[in-house]
Amino acid sequence: MAPRIAMVAGEASGDLLASHLIRAVKQHVPDAVFYGIGGPKMQAEGFEARWQSERLAVHGYVDALKRYRELSGIRKKLLAEIRRDRPDAFIGVDAPDFNLWLEGRVKDSGIPSIHFVSPSIWAWRGGRIKMIARSVSRMLCLFPFEAPIYDKAGVPATYVGHPLADVFPLKPDRAAARERLNVSPDAKVIAVLPGSRQSEVRNLADTFIGAAAILSQRHPDAVFLVPLATRETRTLFEEALRLNNARELPIRMLFGHSVDAMTAADVVLVASGTASLEAALLKRPMVISYRMGGWQYRLMKRMAYLPWVGLPNILCNESLVAELLQDDATPVRLADALDRWLLDPAGCEALAERFTELHLTLRQDTADKAAAAILPYLQHKPQVGHV
């Protein structure tokens, strides 16, 4: 009988990660059947989507509360199907708020539950590790320091590397990126990434535009590339330009193309998140920033365990790049921090060497390693537990 694997992936990033995993597993088990909640990339690999992954997308706490009943209903229906079907394993890809509850019930039913992409317990909400230990048969970790944390807590864990490190070249081609974007080879280029979410752009656009205005005065030949993920975020940034009387700034907004923009850049101003890791893998000097509601920031600051929020600093365990957050994120401070990189070619070169070391550490052929960790669970049908 063909192995059956139930899966849940939320958002586009989870859909991509899961699609690579499905392909890697099928290289070893061609007749494996995957079903559950997923997106178009998973379906292109033969995944049977009972619900689309976009159904799980929520935008902030208010949206999550409004849609709680809908999402809870989907989760309970999928759990009932899994208990009836008795797949060989369940794999939850990211989306911890949705998946960990489901994984606990699946595991209690005698079905191995695997979670792909560790929640950030090392940054905040570390108390969740007790719930994770009850819910997860194995954790697949993207970062090397995560597996020992789980091992210490008695949770089987495997370090599989980060998929972006497999995709990004060790030596990015800046000239080619500038040619694709029609940017002069001699231009001074600053990439400005205010985030992929509408809330991030609302909170950062004015400050980032102010920093660009200061740098434009200091460097009249500078070009600012602003990749924006959606029409909504582009509209928000355009409105911020209008309100700040900044339409004359040499700013080029792009639909997507964030990797090209960062590759082409001399320095990057980036909202904290995965984009900062992308900038590190592209060997670019950067300044990391973030702003949020005051009470949210105070809450997260009290719950934080590390002195950094930016992934490059966390992964290198060192303050390699400036982090200007909340009230410290002023246009002048951001401009000054970016200027320090523009005026320090030797420092930029040394930083690129550190980021190359990080890249090699994270480059592990993630999909194959994750598949290898999952295959043992497909060799024996789990025994029926309580339902």
From TrEMBL:
Gene3D superfamilies: Glycogen Phosphorylase B. Keywords: Glycosyltransferase, Lipid A biosynthesis, Lipid biosynthesis, Lipid metabolism, Transferase. This is Lipid-A-disaccharide synthase. Pathway: Bacterial outer membrane biogenesis; LPS lipid A biosynthesis. Belongs to the LpxB family. It catalyses: a lipid X + a UDP-2-N,3-O-bis[(3R)-3-hydroxyacyl]-alpha-D-glucosamine = a lipid A disaccharide + UDP + H(+). HAMAP family: LpxB. Condensation of UDP-2,3-diacylglucosamine and 2,3-diacylglucosamine-1-phosphate to form lipid A disaccharide, a precursor of lipid A, a phosphorylated glycolipid that anchors the lipopolysaccharide to the outer membrane of the cell. The keyword Lipid metabolism applies. GO terms for molecular function: lipid-A-disaccharide synthase activity; phospholipid binding. One of its GO terms (cellular component) is membrane. The keyword Phosphoprotein does not apply. It comes from the Bacteria. The lineage of its organism: Bacteria, Pseudomonadati, Pseudomonadota, Betaproteobacteria, Rhodocyclales. It is an enzyme of class 2 (transferase). GO terms for biological process: lipid A biosynthetic process. Its EC number is 2.4.1.182. NCBIfam families: lpxB (TIGR00215).
